[in-house]
């Protein structure tokens, strides 16, 4: 069994901010996870760490960024690696467009038995409504231009998971136990909701939720909310002051399955590995 944990997410899903906050907390040794040795390269998140420490909004990861982060960790005496090979999310976008998995990604997927999929609910678009098209075909379109709708976000996420399972050589004829799948619903503070993570996923992506629940063993599927930054720092001097006064490692939270909050962001990785 591989204890390697793979972080997966589309562009702007919040991976860089979370990993910057995660590494800061692990280095402060305020949790159950420790570094087994110094990471070889943290270039991809070092700028985000510096900006948060200064009370500034992290920059968006540049499209095409090809940095990989590997964090050698120890949890409960067991060594593991946290790997995030695609900060900008462009490789995931390319995979969805071509449905072709690069050899490098085949190695990542094959060597990991724990996946964390980052989904930013505020960026999930509504499904295309076929009834609108049908109505316009009968009564006449208001536009002379033909518009081909993009696949819904739900369909794209289902296709992404199916492609990764294919690369893992994992079928769906029986409930999946490996890899363990954890969904992190990110930028939770944007949502202004009192729903639990599962309720929010049902509201935003009912077909995707049905797909994963139908194919994974219940014990091997986790759905959590995540606010790695807790609030926007753009045009927010009070928020910037809070980062300077309280320090970044004390800001941010997880939303557990029952809807309760936990200030220890590292528990996302801990729960994903258990």
Strand content: 15-25%
Number of helical regions: 10
Radius of gyration: 19 Å
Record field, number of beta strands: 9
Low-confidence stretches: 129-149
For the biggest sheet, the summary is: 9 strands, mixed
Classify the secondary structure makeup into a structural class: alpha/beta
Plain-language structure description:
- This protein has 274 residues and is α/β, with parallel strands linked by helices.
- It is 37% helix and 18% strand.
- The chain has helices at residues 15-28, 43-53, 90-98, 103-110, 130-139, 153-167, 197-204, 206-215, 237-246, 267-273; strands at residues 4-9, 33-35, 69-75, 78-84, 112-119, 180-185, 221-227, 253-255, 261-262.
- Strand 3 and strand 4 (78-84) form a beta hairpin.
- The longest helix is centred in the middle third of the chain and has 15 residues, at 153-167.
- Mean pLDDT is 86; it is low at 129-149.
